[in-house]
Every structure is written in C-alpha cells, then in structure tokens.
C-alpha cells in the first residue's frame, strides 16, 4: 500500500518511498503543483538528458561534494517518468527496477548463472552483444542499427552506428583507408562551399564529421572524450590569453589575432 502521508514526505530518512510519495503529491491533479501536473514524457526528456550530463560533468571535475546532489537530480528524472507511466497504466517504479534487474541477471550468466567467469573482457563484450541481438529479435527489431538511440549526441551516435555496422563486416579495413576517406570528404567540402547551397555544404560537413568519428574508432579513441579534452584545452589557453591581456587592462576585443596567437603559443609552451 502506498504511503503519501505528510509524515513520510517530511521524514528526512524516508529514502526511496519518500521520493516516490513526493512525486505523487506533486502530480496530484487536485492538490499538486500546476507545472509538474502539466509535464509529459516529452517535456521531461530534455531535463533527463541535461541532468545526465551534469552528473558526468561533476565526475569529470572530480566534484565529489556535488555528485550526490547531481545523482539525486538524475534519480528524480527516473521517478518523474515512472509516475507518468503509472498514471497511464504503462509501468511504475517497481516494474522499472524489476526490468533492469532481470536484464542485468540475463546479461551476466557468468556471474548469476552457470557459465564460467574465466573470460576476457573482449569475450564478455562479445557475449553481451549476442544477448542484446537476441533481445532485439524478440522485440521484432531485427535491423542491425535499429536500437541505436536517436537522441544520443551526434558524435556518440555516429560512433555507435559505425561499431554496430562493423560487427557485420561493413567497415574500412584499416586506418589508411579512413584517412583517405577524410581527404576525399575534405576536398568535397572545399568544393561545395564555392558553388553549392548552404544545405549541401552542411551535408558535406556532416560527412566529414562522420568519417572523423570513424577514424577515432579505428584508433580506439573515444571521440566524445577527445573533443571534451580539446574543449578543456581551448578553454585553458584562451583564459591564459585573457589573463595576460588583463595585465594591461585590456580584453580580447582590444587585441588582434597576431597578439592573441602569440599568447596562445606561450600558453602552449607553458604546458596549458
């Protein structure tokens, strides 16, 4: 029996039952919050994505004092979707927990079943993909790319699409062929910008980015992490430029490219 009492809602040690009760109260059509009542799966989804990135950001910054709060924000998103699902008779929080528990047990027969644990990480990954393929078949989603999520960041989705295709043999033989394709796509982009429409230029740019993701995969580099690292490096070095200009009470807009480029090289030389 569900407990939505004020006693539970205000219990600082109420744990998961408390959070579920709070969400039910927020969504109550008579006494809940008007904003929360209006929300749907679609309107909440962007917040779910944002909260997942904020968890990743806290981990990347090693902001361990913030991580608990960020994980709580992400958990709230799951609870939100669970409550909407319960209202529609689709699923509820316990059924969500049961579903993921069933999946983890089924996908780890070497831990929870009779299979041997004497497997390499590569062998376990292969077995995981075999099980996932069987699950896709059961859901009548037999296409190789069918369950690569549409709303993943584009670079991450490109890598996943390519990995999935590679498993069935649709892949470049090696890095040299990918580099040749990058040269080809870069040439096509250069040609497109001189005489084709903006839409065609954007298409060619997408092709180049897609093959760059393929190169990262062949080099066993995580393209998302590589680009995040490049972003961090750019931020550090540009902050150095700003700091150096501030010594003479100036801002970047008071400088010029030659000076800022020289300061960039100094930042680079100093290991930033």
From TrEMBL:
One of its GO terms (molecular function) is ATP diphosphatase activity. It comes from the Bacteria. It catalyses: ATP + H2O = AMP + diphosphate + H(+). Gene3D superfamilies: MazG-like. InterPro entries: MazG-like_dom (IPR004518), NTP-PPase_MazG-like_C (IPR048011), NTP-PPase_MazG-like_N (IPR048015), NTP_PyrPHydrolase_MazG (IPR011551). Its EC number is 3.6.1.8. Keywords: Hydrolase. Residues 39-112, 178-237 form the NTP pyrophosphohydrolase MazG-like domain. One of its GO terms (biological process) is TTP catabolic process. Signal peptide: none annotated. Belongs to the nucleoside triphosphate pyrophosphohydrolase family. This is Nucleoside triphosphate pyrophosphohydrolase.
